[in-house]
Every structure is written in structure tokens, then in C-alpha cells.
Amino acid sequence: MLRHFTKGKKLSSKWSDNIAGWLFVSPMLIGFSIFMFGPLLYAFFISLNDWPLLGEETFIGMKNYESLANDPTFIKSLINTLLFSLGLVPFNIILAMFLASLLKNKFWGIGLFRTAIFVPVVTSLIVWSIVWKYLLASELGFINQMLALIGIEGPSWLLSVSTALPVVIFVSVLKNVGLNMILFLTAMQQVPVELYEASELDGASNFRKFRSVTLPLITPTVFLTMIITTIGAMKVFGQIYVMTRGGPVDSTKVLVYYIWETAFKHFDMGYASALAFVLFFILLAFTILSWIVRKRWVFYEE
Hints:
mainly alpha
């Protein structure tokens, strides 16, 4: 009888803990359902319709998704998005890691250097893009004028098919490299000094110490920055809108810009929603795949 009572009391306590836990997380769950999951389902419903912004919607099933296979602009924007990500992510991470390696040691003026690299992160993306658009102007741009002083005729950076996308990648890297640099700097400062001392006794060079000591121990940060940077690159929009408007000849038209153009210039909300869900599933697949393979190379993961 006493054992029964004690067991019942334990169960009651367990249920109370569960209820208390659900009550604590319920504001977040309610907010997520109302502001995230609900609109997500509604957007998927819109993607199944021929939905003009100012007109009657018509249910057409999966036809919006079927049309994507025969849409050359979609294929072009998808390729541009992948090229943008493949150019930005490695460039950003390698540069951030290099800067963190330089700035992890204390020397005079280090605070000034760290601040200078981080300032673009807190600068408005629109302001940053406008400034670079004027710097890269064909004739009166600052960069071409500096090149003219040494006898070099600068190209039309943002008006040439061959240079527009690389230039936007370069500007985007400079805008956000400071954030990844801070993350790498924090990770590198957590590496035990004893490991560096032991490697020095073995005669390891600086490059060998970085490859064999630093890099393996900061792989959790590398994994985090890779995920964040890739998702940000796949969703790029602001700098494309300000600097090139997707041109010239669609050479910088990325997927999010095409979604905006389809929704708010062509007013085809159904097709734009289908495009958005393609991007959503690409990012979802990338995140799941990255999470699965992380155990093969991320330190501290079993």
C-alpha cells in the first residue's frame, strides 16, 4: 500500500514536471505556430494555386512546380545562386580564418584592426551596397580612377557579364567576414596553449601547428560558420537588388531576386510561392545532409 502510494506520488510529480515544462515552452510554441508554421502552410497552399495578386485564385495542383522544369529563368537563377554560394562560402570562411589567425595574438593597435574588420557587419546592407555601387562605377568610380592613375583602364565592373557576379561576391564577403572572424577568434583562443608548446618542442612549423592543432579543434566552429554562411548566401537579395537588379542579362539574377520579381513585379503569387518552396527544400536538404556527415569531420562529435 505504501509502495503504491509512493509510486503514485512519483508519477504525479513526473506529470507535474512535464506540465510545467510544456507551460514554459508554450509561448514559443504558440508563437512559432502562429508566425512561422501557419504562414508556411498557407504559402504551400498558395503554391498549389494560380494566384494573381489582384484576382481570383484557381486551384491547379502541382502545375506551378511542373512549370519550373521548363522555365529557363528559374534554371538560370538557380545556377547563379549555386555559383554565388560556391564563390562566397569558401572565400568567406578561409579569409575569416586567416584574419582570426593574424589577430589572435596581442600587439599594438589590435583593437583598431578588429574593429575595422567588424564595422561592415553592423553597417546597413543597403548603405554598404550603395557605397560599393558608386565605388565600382564605370567612369567616375573611385576604383577605376585609381586604376587610371597607373595606366590601367578599369572594366565596367557591374555592367559586364563576366565581372558582375564575382564583384557582388567580393563585396558580400567584405560585408560579413568580420562576423565569422570573431567566431573563429573565440574558438582559437580556447585551444589549450600546452598543445602549441608540445608541437613547438617537436619542431612543428606555424603551418603544421595550424593544420594539426588549431584546425581540428575549431571544427565545431567551422561547421557552424559553414551552415550559417551557406544559408545566408542562398538567400542573398539586398546587394543584388541595389547593385545590379539581377543584370546584366540575368547574370546576377539569384533565386530570391527571381521570387521577388515574380511576386511583386509580375504579381504571380502562386508561382513565386512554388519558387520559394524549392529554395526551402534545397536548404532543408543541405542542412540535413550537413548534420548527418558532421560526425565524420567535426571534433567532439561521436
